[in-house]
Write a structure and sequence with these properties.
about 60 residues; mainly alpha; 2 helices; about 90% helix; elongated
Length: about 60
């Protein structure tokens, strides 16, 4: 749930940085976009890993 909140805040910051016309706004925009994609990727990878671990645990219990 915290990851979803972080991604929503990053979307908001990306939007703000896109409309600000300052010297560092382009680098802040790129950093915000990178963080948005990276955090989404990490959350997706963690959800797959958790599903695999839970699936492996349930297979081990059936064998006993």
């Amino acid at each position: 749930m915290a990851g979803v909140v972080i991604i929503l805040l990053l979307y908001l910051s990306t939007l703000v940085f896109a409309f600000i016309d300052k010297s560092q706004s382009k680098s802040l925009l790129m950093a915000s976009m990178f963080a948005t994609f990276f955090i989404a990727f990490v959350l997706y990878a963690l959800s797959i890993a958790i599903k695999m671990v839970k699936h492996d645990d349930s297979d081990g219990k059936d064998d006993k």
